[in-house]
Write a structure and sequence with these properties.
The protein has helices spanning about 5-15, 20-40, 50-70, 75-95, 100-120, 165-180, 185-195, 200-210; strands at about 215-220, 225-229. It is mainly α. It has two domains: about 5-125 and about 130-140; about 165-229, Winged helix-like DNA-binding domain superfamily/Winged helix DNA-binding domain (Arc Repressor Mutant, subunit A, Orthogonal Bundle), CATH 1.10.10. A hairpin with a 6-residue loop joins strand 1 and strand 2.
């Protein structure tokens, strides 16, 4: 599935994935992994069926993540199936069906999915299409099977914006809660509650919330106040 900003934005606001950007990221990434495994299977000769089985499991897992977001499947079950997929990759590596370089790429990406899957259990409103863009794995020719070494193993990359770390997300969430409760707050009033950072940091995060359409500003400079959008 090609990266499509409009569709990503639709998915983020849909009844299925709203507030669950991490789970949507996992859905996309597993889908990409399944696609790459299919390409690998086509180039693997007699070993292709074993790799095809991995691709089928990955495709099934992608569907499970969608059903997880719908509340039809429990997170521990999906996580268990992800660990089964990880174990299958390691088994094919031990049998030399997959090259160790290929295995390292797949395992790294699947482990990242596991981390995001758990993180997705705590939904956040601070998301946009750019926050979860899933880049494709390298072409299958760079993820070779037995008897070959990849010169450019490559990987997916999580394209989260710089500075969107856990501490910042929690702070923005607190700022948003304050504004929504108080209906109108100045930076100084916010700083009296959030004391672990400077007013400049609060200003920067308020600007981010404004860009995301979650709050709005009225007034100029030191007379500015912030209100729910």
């Amino acid at each position: 599935m090609p990266d499509n900003k409009k569709f990503h934005e639709f998915a983020l606001q849909s009844i299925l994935f709203k507030g669950r950007a991490d789970w949507y990221f996992c859905y996309l990434k597993i889908e990409k992994i399944a696609h790459v495994l299919i390409l690998l299977a086509q180039r693997a000769g007699t070993a292709g069926e074993d790799i095809n089985e991995l691709a089928r499991r990955a495709a099934s897992l992608s569907g499970e993540i969608a059903h997880l977001a719908a509340g039809e499947v429990d997170a521990p079950i999906v996580l268990a199936d992800l660990f089964v997929l990880l174990g299958s990759v390691r088994m094919l590596t031990a049998r030399e069906t997959l090259a160790s370089e290929t295995s390292a790429v797949l395992i790294r990406e699947l482990e990242q999915v596991a981390e995001r899957l758990v993180k997705g259990s705590h939904p956040s409103p601070f998301v946009s299409a750019e926050d979860f863009t899933v880049h494709t794995l390298p072409e299958a020719s760079h993820l070779l099977t037995k008897g070959h070494v990849s010169d450019h193993p490559g990987s997916f990359k999580d394209n989260k914006s710089k500075g969107q770390d856990k501490g910042q997300s929690e702070r923005m969430s607190l700022i948003l809660d304050l504004v929504r409760k108080k209906k109108s707050l100045s930076i100084k009033e916010i700083a009296q509650v959030i004391r672990d950072c400077s007013e400049k940091t609060i200003q920067r995060e308020l600007n981010t919330l404004i860009e995301k359409g979650l709050i709005r500003r009225e007034g100029e400079r030191r007379w500015s106040v912030y209100l729910p959008a």
